[in-house]
Amino acid sequence: MKTILKPTRVLVALGVMLTLAGCGKASQTDQANQPVVAQYAKKKITQQDFYQALKAEPSAKQVLANLLIYGSMKDAYGKKIDEAKVTAAYKSYQARYGDQFADYLEENGYTKKTFKQTLRLNYLSEAALKAQIKPTTAQLKDAWKTYQPKITVQHILTTSEDTAKTVIAQLQQGADFAKLAQQYSVDNTTASNGGKMAAFDSTDKNVDSTFKDAAYKLKDGEFTTTPVKTTSGYEVIQMIKHPAKGTFKASKAALTASLYQKWEASTTVMKNVISQVLKDENVKIKDKDLQSALNAYKGTTTSGTATTK
Question: pTM for this one?
Answer without folding.
Answer: 0.64
